[in-house]
Structures are given as structure tokens and as C-alpha cells.
From TrEMBL:
Species classification: Bacteria, Bacillati, Actinomycetota, Actinomycetes, Micromonosporales
Name of protein: Monooxygenase
Domain FAD-binding: 7-174, 279-344
Native species: Micromonospora deserti
A single GO molecular function term of this UniProt record: monooxygenase activity
InterPro entries per record: FAD-bd, FAD-dep_Monooxygenase_BioMet, FAD/NAD-bd_sf
UniProt-listed Pfam families: FAD_binding_3 (PF01494)
Family matches, as SUPFAM superfamilies: FAD/NAD(P)-binding domain (SSF51905)
Keyword set, alphabetical order: Monooxygenase, Oxidoreductase
Entries under PANTHER family matching the protein: MONOOXYGENASE (PTHR13789), PUTATIVE (AFU_ORTHOLOGUE AFUA_6G14510)-RELATED (PTHR13789:SF309)
């Protein structure tokens, strides 16, 4: 039985509220401290929650609230030029759920508050101090908070990560910029179908919106990374002109860009990933979510893995007798899984901007790939069928999973 009774959670995005909910269920009182002065209403693009992500949300009673605001994706397809093939899927698993990041954030925030979790805003962490019995967080406004443990759920540019290890790597640029919008153009695809398209100058995806039109997202190759403020400082109309030039030879890319408005363009900015983080914990501090593992958006697993890690951390703190053994077990349960997903996503990234020869061969190779390399059970089964048994006790046995 744990001696941990209180926790500070740094970061109120996706992993933070789920961590606090899971800790609360484990009998640990957690307060969330968020650097931004308010909730992230209207901020961020669309993300996907895989079946494993939705399944683990049941452990904190948030699955229904999330699926109520999401769009289910029942089918996926791949298109190169005019060649289009349905992608094989897993049998007997729920659909992928796509949801706007801000809507997901709001749903998780509201669920946490309803469960009694305190979320304090405008609290930017600057330092910590540990003692034999606890840890104190110091914030930029001069205030402090003390608890038994501190959880860094503060994203890919984590302050907690650098406090744990000043030499920790930072995020890496994938060579892609992200954009998103809803076009007035209606694509020839059944509702609930997501299409991955390889255009002449970049990769994009799209699906019919339930309310009409077509939501699309693009990964535009660019050598120079841009911070989000830098990308958003460029007028949206200028970005849209660049996108229309890049996708003007594609079908339906051309129609999607031409029938989209600059006012509705969501600039996501540079797409980043986290290389393997050597240290996930030190003393009474530990990382969850993107602060420890942020695979490329190509994985379709970023948010789901963050939610899984939040729940696994709570189980470990619930069942193991001290902080050190709990954090060690948590890392053992998570590291191998998240790094395998990241490696798969990195391979996909390299295929998102094929050269002229590769692009010419892709329509010919696609049917063969469907029959050989694209076995959904082999590539996705172990990811999407993954289930965390909340009630099962965690042990310190290195062989246990």
C-alpha cells in the first residue's frame, strides 16, 4: 500500500486532468497547475483517439463524455493520384474517434472539476525543492505548493523534464508543418471514412464532416522549423495561397483548398516529436504524456498513449509501497510500448513526401502492399487492442506486465 497521499500535477492539457482523475480514484488527492491563464478554448487542431485510448478513459469515467463530442471513423483509405484503395482494418474493435483538441481538453477539464479536482490557472512552474517527506513547487507568481509527489504533464516543451534532467533532449522537428480547415467541397466518400492522400508536393488527409463539407489536414514539407507564434504571425491568407499552390494539381486537394476560407484555417505549426527521454523520473518527480513520449501525429496514438500513461502511473502509486518502486514500475510498464509506437510513426513520416519516382510507383505497389506488408493485426493489433486492467494489482516484479 502506498504512502503517497497528495500530488502536484503540472499541466492542464490532456494528460494532466486524466492523471488527476486517476490519482483521485487511487486515493491520492491531486491538484492541477496550468501555466495558461484560462482553458484552451478554440486552440489546437483535430486529433485522433484510438480504441485503446477510449478504453482507458473508462477507468476515469470520461469515455462517454469524449465519444459524445467526437466523430467516429469506421473506414480508412489511401489515395495516390486517382488510385484509391480501402485500407484493411482490425476486426472487432471500436472505431477511431477524431475530436478537436480544444473540445477534448474542455471535456476532460469539466470531468475532473466535477470529480472534485482543483485546477489552478496562471501557475507557471519555475523550480522545485525536495525534502525527505515531500516536494515543493515554486511558480512564477511567487506562490508555492507542496505535496508527496510532482507529476510533469506539461507537454513536449516540459519544464519538469529539464528539472529532472538538465541534459534531457528537447523536441525534434519532423520537417513538416501542419494546417487544417473545413472545405465547402463535398468529397465522394461515405461518412466515417478517412482518406490518406499523397499529393505531388505533400501529404494530406480528409473526411466528410457530419455537418457538411470536408475536414482536411495537411503535412506540408518545409526545411525550416517554425514556432507556433512564428507560424501564426504569417497571415492566414498567405498560408492558404501556399497550400493552393502545393496541392493545386491534386484531386481532391485542389477543390479542398479552393473552397476553404483563410478565416477558418487552423495553423498547427511545426510538427514535433520527442526522441527517447533517458530519465522519466528523479526523486519525487515523474513525467507523463508528451513530456516523456510524444510520437509523430502519424502514429494516431499520441493522445491515447498520454492517457494510458496517466492511468498506469496512478495504478503504480496506488499499489507499490514507496515512490521509487512506483516510478520504476511505471517506466517499466510504459517505455517499451511508447518507443515502439514512436518508431513506427517515424517510418510513416519518411513516406509522407515521396519523390517523383516513388510516387509514380506507389499506385502499382499499393495492391501488393495491402496483401503483404499492411497486415493490420501485425501493424496495429498490439497497439489498438491494448487494455489496462485498473483492478489488477501492480507488482515490482521486473518480469510483470
Amino acid at each position: 500500500m502506498t504512502t503517497v497521499r497528495t500530488a502536484i500535477v503540472i499541466g492542464g492539457g490532456i494528460a494532466g486532468p486524466v492523471t488527476a482523475l486517476a490519482l483521485r480514484r487511487a486515493g491520492i488527492a491531486a491538484t492541477v497547475y496550468e501555466a495558461y491563464p484560462s482553458t484552451a478554448d478554440g486552440v489546437g487542431g483535430t486529433l485522433a483517439l484510438a480504441p485503446n485510448g477510449v478504453a482507458v478513459l473508462r477507468a476515469v469515467g470520461a469515455d462517454s463524455a469524449v465519444t459524445a463530442i467526437a466523430t467516429p471513423i469506421h473506414r480508412t483509405a489511401m489515395a495516390v493520384g486517382r488510385k484509391r484503395l480501402d485500407l484493411p482494418g482490425l476486426a472487432d474493435v471500436p472505431p477511431l474517434q477524431v475530436v478537436h483538441r480544444a473540445d477534448l481538453h474542455r471535456a476532460l477539464h469539466d470531468r475532473a472539476v466535477a470529480a472534485g479536482v482543483v485546477i489552478e490557472h496562471d501557475k507557471r512552474l519555475v523550480d522545485t525543492q525536495e525534502t525527505a517527506t515531500g516536494i515543493t513547487a515554486r511558480f512564477a507568481d511567487g506562490s508555492t505548493a507542496t505535496a508527496d509527489v510532482l507529476v510533469g504533464a506539461d507537454g513536449i516543451r516540459s519544464t519538469v523534464r529539464t528539472l529532472i534532467d538538465p541534459d534531457a533532449p528537447g523536441p525534434r522537428y519532423t520537417g513538416l508543418l501542419g494546417f487544417e480547415a473545413v472545405a465547402r467541397h463535398e468529397v465522394d466518400a461515405e461518412p466515417g471514412t478517412m482518406t490518406f492522400a499523397f499529393g505531388r508536393r505533400g501529404y494530406y488527409l480528409y473526411w466528410p464532416e457530419p455537418g457538411g463539407g470536408t475536414r482536411w489536414g495537411v503535412n506540408l514539407p518545409q526545411q525550416r522549423p517554425m514556432t507556433l507564434p512564428e507560424a501564426r504571425a504569417v497571415p492566414a491568407a498567405e498560408w492558404l495561397r501556399a497550400l493552393r499552390a502545393a496541392y493545386g494539381d491534386d484531386d481532391p486537394g485542389r477543390q479542398l483548398m479552393l473552397t476553404s476560407s483563410a478565416d477558418d484555417l487552423q495553423v498547427v505549426g511545426s510538427l514535433l516529436i520527442m526522441p527517447p527521454v533517458p530519465r522519466w523520473h528523479r526523486g519525487r518527480m515523474v513525467l507523463v504524456g508528451d513530456s516523456a513520449h510524444a510520437p509523430s501525429n502519424s502514429s494516431g496514438q499520441g493522445a491515447s498513449l498520454a492517457i494510458e500513461s496517466a492511468v498506469q502511473l496512478a495504478r503504480c502509486l496506488r499499489d507499490l509501497p514507496d515512490v521509487a518502486s512506483a516510478f520504476t514500475a511505471y517506466e517499466r510498464l510504459r517505455r517499451d510500448r511508447v518507443e515502439k509506437v514512436a518508431a513506427r510513426a517515424a517510418r510513416i513520416n519518411r513516406a509522407k513526401a515521396p519523390g517523383a519516382v516513388a510516387r509514380a510507383l506507389m499506385p502499382l505497389l499499393m495492391p501488393l502492399l495491402m496483401k503483404t506488408a499492411m497486415d493490420p493485426e501485425k501493424t496495429m493489433g498490439h497497439e489498438q487492442r491494448y487494455v489496462i486492467d485498473w483492478d489488477a494489482p501492480v507488482t515490482s516484479d521486473p518480469a510483470a506486465r
